[in-house]
Design brief:
The structure holds two protein chains of two kinds. By secondary structure, chain A is α+β, with helices and mostly antiparallel strands. Chain A contains two helices and six strands, in the order ββββαββα. In chain B, helix 2 links the parallel strand 1 and strand 2 (about 35-40). The chains are: A alpha+beta, B alpha/beta.
Chain lengths: ~100, ~140
């Protein structure tokens, strides 16, 4: 977990996410390099995986979907997301559970 | 879902690190009615297969080389088959004879994409003909 790079922003945090689409289930599975590793059942077609990622992160961190923004990597497996209303400490605590 | 629809639903597990290649194959398989899933590693593939065993597992030969035991240990559905693949320019690592014996075919992908589609159809037909594979339990026989 120590490898996860979390950058605080004025309103929350920004972090990299490594996505595995078309997986058998949707969940956060750990850390890949300095990014959060996430499995999604959604295919990377027509934005379905991005939508699923936003919903999964919102559910995981208990924030509304509008508080999750993909700021880079819309068509890449490695994305940068911003989570509003989430602290770095909260991300690290959730990753340890 | 009807009995016939359930029998024709076929999970194909694509295992490897080349995301672009596997996504292309997944889209081809999905377009003709298969249910493709992708796993990046043998570990992830075993997890995915334990949840719902695939009828066809298509595994990168380079990952098969890294298998610690004599088998890939990916659970297949009854009547299921294992296929290995490699790239056209890959150096082919040796794999154990046990793994080799368990493999239905070895493909060069994406060059032999059509052969993969034919193999998937063959396995699906074999399962249908023998009555193996996903079973449909009528609602009146399902446990409550």
């Amino acid at each position: 977990m120590g490898g996860l790079r979390i950058q605080p922003t004025g309103t929350g945090v920004r972090l990299s996410v490594r996505v595995q689409p078309r997986a058998s289930d949707s969940r956060v599975t750990g850390v890949h390099g300095d990014a959060l590793k996430v499995r999604l059942t959604a295919p990377p077609v027509d934005g379905a995986a991005n939508e699923a990622l936003v919903e999964l992160l919102a559910g995981t961190f208990g924030i509304p979907t509008r508080a999750v923004t993909i700021v880079a990597g819309m068509s890449s497996r490695t994305k940068v997301v911003e989570l509003e209303g989430v602290t770095e400490d909260r991300v690290r605590r959730l990753m340890q559970t | 879902m009807t009995h016939v629809e359930r029998l024709t639903e076929m999970k194909v597990l694509l295992v490897g690190e080349d995301a672009a290649l596997l996504e292309g194959l997944a889209q081809s398989l999905a377009a003709v009615g298969y249910a493709p899933q992708v796993a990046e590693s043998l570990h992830d593939a075993r997890d995915a297969a334990a949840d719902a065993p695939p009828l066809l597992a298509v595994v990168d030969r380079n990952l098969a080389d890294e298998a610690s035991g004599d088998t890939l240990a990916i659970t297949l559905a009854p009547g299921g088959a294992l296929v290995l693949y490699h790239g056209a320019s890959d150096d082919l690592p040796a794999i154990s004879p046990t793994v080799q014996r368990s493999v239905m075919a070895e493909l060069t992908l994406p060059l032999e994409r059509n052969r993969l589609m034919a193999l998937a159809a063959h396995v699906q037909e074999r399962v249908r003909a023998t009555g193996r594979g996903t079973r449909f339990t009528p609602p009146e026989q399902q446990a409550f």
